[in-house]
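can u do me a favor
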């Protein structure tokens, strides 16, 4: 494939792109979407690799696990460039928890410029409703950006935000429903004690 050339899968899916899937926490919808897309590329006979953040070993240390415990093999790292040579032979690169990788923006841009499809699943905002890491800097480089909504775990409306249930103040605190919940705009403003 020529640098900058775009191949197309049947059904119109571009090869050679950056695709970003974001969401608030809960139920692993972006992770499930990432795994679904990777499986689709595998069916299309594309060589694929999944990369996970090494700091998140809640479900499986050697794979990406959806919240319903479906596990897919993945390479664990804390910096994407540390495994660059290991993934260069792949046509499709999936990155889970993209918000935790400090080099996500230059890595994804470089890989797409080399003819790869890069799919990133990430939280777009922190519990403070601020951009998470460098993930928002990936938006102008992406061919597609999808923001999935969850269900507010307090009032059951659409949820676009993250509410931390504990008292930790640092941004990177790995956890699931015991530490975070997806909430709507109104419920994000409530104190944790007032949330059902």
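np, heres the sequence
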């Amino acid at each position: 494939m020529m640098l900058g050339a775009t191949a197309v899968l049947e059904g119109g899916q571009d090869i050679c792109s950056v695709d970003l899937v974001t969401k608030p926490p809960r139920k692993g919808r972006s992770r499930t979407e990432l795994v679904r897309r990777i499986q689709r590329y595998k069916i299309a006979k594309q060589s694929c690799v999944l990369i996970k953040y090494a700091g998140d070993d809640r479900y499986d240390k050697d794979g990406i696990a959806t919240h319903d415990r479906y596990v897919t093999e993945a390479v664990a790292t804390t910096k994407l460039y540390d495994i660059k040579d290991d993934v260069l032979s792949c046509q499709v690169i999936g990155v889970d928890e993209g918000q935790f990788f400090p080099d996500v923006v230059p890595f994804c841009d470089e890989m797409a410029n080399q003819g790869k499809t890069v799919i990133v699943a990430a939280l777009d905002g922190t519990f403070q409703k601020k951009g998470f890491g460098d993930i928002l800097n990936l938006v102008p480089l992406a061919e597609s950006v999808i923001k999935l909504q969850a269900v507010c775990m307090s009032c059951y409306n659409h949820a676009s935000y993250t509410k931390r249930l504990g008292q930790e103040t640092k941004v990177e605190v790995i956890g699931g429903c015991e530490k975070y919940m997806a909430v709507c705009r109104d419920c994000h403003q409530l104190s944790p004690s007032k949330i059902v």
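The chain has one domain: 7-148. hope that helps!!
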